[in-house]
Amino acid sequence: MSELIKVKQQGEARCEGLSYQDLLDNETIEVPAYLREDTNPYMGDEDLSVDRWISRDFHELEKQKLWPKVWQMTCREEDIPEVGDHHVYEIVDQSIIVTRTGENEIKAFINSCLHRGRILRDCDGHAEEFVCPFHGATWDINGNFKGIPCKWDFSHLDQKDMSLPQVKVDTWGGFVFINFDENCQSLEDYLNPLPEHFSRFPLHDYYKGAHVQRVVQCNWKVGAEAFMESFHTLETHSEILTFTGDANSQYDTFGDHVSRSVTPMGVASPHMPEVTEEETMRDILELSGRMATDNAEGHAMPEGLTARSYIAETNREMFSELIGEPLDQATQSELEDAILYMLFPNTQVWIGYNGNIVYRFLPNGDDHNSCIFETMILMRYPKGTQKPEPAEKNILRPDQAFSEAPEIGGLGPVFDQDDSNMAAVQKGMIASRKGAVSLASYQESRIRHLHQTIDKYLNA
Amino acid sequence: MAITDTLIPAVDISDKQTVPVTLNGKNILICKANGEFYAVDNQCTHQRAELTGGRIRNCYLACPLHGVRFDLRTGQPLGELTRVPLKTYDVSLADNGNLQLELD
Ligand code: FES
Ligand SMILES: [Fe+2]
């Protein structure tokens, strides 16, 4: 490891070099308040038992006390654009039909027939009414019972409430959320301060340009945590260090449900003092997968400009053109940094003017040793034109690499590197004699935050 | 391999539309999805329901009866209701502007 990393002592220990807040001082555009937030309350430094990721008991506790209580993202509104369109959302052993019932109304029904319990819908699609494939019991899309064949045999059901049970639904940013808990707090309160921080990015009007999913052989939290710190960049993604301020990242927590990491981009890692601005510029274009162009050809570093400014201005120009609206008020940070929010428990969304990445980690059914990793890319389209149709989900086989999904471009090879750790972490934790993991105080604080919030639910 | 004229001008079919045709005694459904033409057997492999009028999203056609979705490119079904793919036919454009199918 480089000699350059000499951390300052005490609770304020940070990597030397330009911090994210220092970089904001160089902005020429007014910096919005949310970027100036710098909040990381001390949460302790205790080891965490590996049971949290590998034990069946912990999974059962989550099943009883976490998933039934949290707001969880199910799909995009654009996935169910027309009345009658529905998405079947499955979480552990529960199944929900998320259905559009009106232009501005979505309902979520328990996916279980009130006759003998068969799931009513096997997959996403469109329905004029829900006809159970077993004996034909039927509900309208609002969940009102319409009947069952051989009605003479069911007079005992006449007095019963045969409406399909519903769970809570709400939307934010074009995402549809559900909550199984009738008495839950409102989605608005739960999300706070996410909507305010995303107020410059109207995600509801972005479209889903890519959606890729694959099973990964690790607990869902191991998957989520692979994207919650930039500390692993040094060893896992060493080829991106020429343009990633990994150890100068900022980590923030906001209340129980929201945290973020901000990793400066377009600057070299503090681990790599020798990198030139030219190298930073070329590599970020070719390797990051997130810039306005992924081809460095024809790009030369103008004298006196930093790579960070050059890339931000290139993005500003190309994104403005794409959106059909000038991005005068965008800071360089918002145009290129990796600003990644987590919404408890399992959804992560990037800030940005185009190509915002979304991650979701779902338990793989009732198996605590595997999860479903999904990534979506939210895209912009020219103002005044019709919103493009959302991408169909590309479900990779367990043996396929993420780089086999061309629609995620440069992210594929990066995910493959992350993927090389995920199952290996699960395996190693199971083999562990120490029986616990230790966390970096600052850089891995969001992981501790995740677990402390989980505990609040499990102990409630 | 016999090429058969469907007598249906390609320009008459709009996106997401399904048009049933009977050719050589077979009930075939012509579909347009994302600007491409597809042709499949007009009979769901789950319960033989007609697929005419089924919803098309991207390149998937949904059976109106229980919602099984078929990939129009391959005929492969999604979900658990059936594992049997739909038969698909190659569609091309004849010189007269009609769609034509390859039937065996
Ligand atoms: S189980 Fe649904 S109709 Fe019988
Ligand atoms: Fe990574």
Describe this protein with a few key phrases:
heterodimer, A: 460 residues, alpha+beta, Naphthalene 1,2-dioxygenase Alpha Subunit, Chain A, domain 1, Rieske Iron-sulfur Protein, 20 strands, 24% strand, B: 104 residues, mainly beta, four-stranded antiparallel beta sheet, 0% helix, 47% strand, binds FE2/S2 (inorganic) cluster, binds fe (ii) ion
CATH superfamily of the largest domain in chain A: Naphthalene 1,2-dioxygenase Alpha Subunit, Chain A, domain 1
Main β-sheet description of chain A: 8 strands, mixed
Please report which band the strand proportion of chain A falls in: under 5%, 5-15%, 15-25%, 25-35%, 35-45% or over 45%. 15-25%
> What class would the helix/strand composition of chain B place it in?
mainly beta
- Portion of residues within helices of chain A: 10-25%
What would you call the shape of chain A? globular
At the fourth level of CATH, the homologous superfamily of chain B is Rieske [2Fe-2S] iron-sulphur domain
Mean pLDDT of chain B: 92
Radius of gyration of chain A: 24 Å
Low-confidence stretches of chain B: none
Oligomer: heterodimer
Per the CATH scheme, the topology name of the largest domain in chain A is: Naphthalene 1,2-dioxygenase Alpha Subunit, Chain A, domain 1
Q: Might you state the CATH topology name of chain B?
A: Rieske Iron-sulfur Protein
How many beta-strand runs of chain B?
A: 11
- Please report the number of helical segments of chain A: 13
Portion in helices of chain B: under 10%
Give the C-level CATH assignment of the largest domain in chain A.
Alpha Beta
